[in-house]
């Protein structure tokens, strides 16, 4: 699966000024496995570009933790509800492996776009990709069977099945552990 940055690498390569501007606002940061990068109930001030490792976004419902997003190398992750709207998030962000990221502060990104309106094009492309991913996720959950959701994830992100606990994948797919085991066995 192509990630946003792979899809738009040409934009960065053709605009060294844009690439340099992003490099100036990115900070390399490391998190150990099981670290919480963002806790629900707080405003999310950062987005992360993962250089190594896997992270997930999840929330709690009736004492169950529900995974709603995974990100791995060259993908971005944040608690988007809070990052964009500047409100307290209902989501948590967790490192599922030791994680190395490039961290971008909301304020730095906002300042970059405000001081260089020509860079907002990149921001718009990023938001369009988030929208597309969200629509595909909703379609998967509403229109596909458990088997189809499993096959779609296996096709798009096969690496997750070796790197992420089955309980998190089952949760992401909207299945019980038993259903996941049955579907996986087919």
Automatic annotation (TrEMBL):
<dbReference type="Pfam" id="PF00027">
    <property type="entry name" value="cNMP_binding"/>
</dbReference>
<protein>
    <submittedName>
        <fullName>Crp/Fnr family transcriptional regulator</fullName>
    </submittedName>
</protein>
<dbReference type="InterPro" id="IPR000595">
    <property type="entry name" value="cNMP-bd_dom"/>
</dbReference>
<dbReference type="InterPro" id="IPR018490">
    <property type="entry name" value="cNMP-bd_dom_sf"/>
</dbReference>
<feature type="domain" description="Cyclic nucleotide-binding">
    <location>
        <begin position="29"/>
        <end position="116"/>
    </location>
</feature>
<dbReference type="InterPro" id="IPR014710">
    <property type="entry name" value="RmlC-like_jellyroll"/>
</dbReference>
């Amino acid at each position: 699966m192509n990630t946003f940055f792979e899809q738009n690498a040409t934009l960065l390569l053709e605009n060294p000024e844009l690439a340099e501007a992003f490099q100036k606002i990115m900070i390399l940061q490391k998190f150990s496995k099981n670290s919480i990068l963002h806790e629900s109930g707080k405003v999310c001030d950062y987005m992360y570009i993962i250089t190594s490792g896997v992270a997930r976004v999840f929330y709690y419902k009736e004492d169950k933790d529900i995974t709603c997003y995974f990100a791995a190398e060259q993908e971005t992750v944040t608690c988007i509800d809070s990052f964009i709207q500047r409100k307290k998030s209902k989501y948590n962000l967790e490192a599922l492996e030791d994680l190395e990221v490039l961290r971008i502060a909301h304020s730095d990104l906002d300042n970059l776009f405000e001081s260089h309106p020509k860079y907002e094009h990149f921001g718009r492309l990023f938001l369009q990709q988030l929208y597309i991913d969200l629509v595909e996720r909703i379609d998967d959950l509403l229109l596909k069977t458990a088997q189809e959701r499993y096959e779609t994830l296996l096709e798009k992100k096969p690496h997750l099945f070796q790197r992420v606990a089955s309980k998190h994948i089952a949760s992401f797919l909207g299945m019980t552990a038993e259903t996941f085991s049955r579907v996986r066995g087919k």
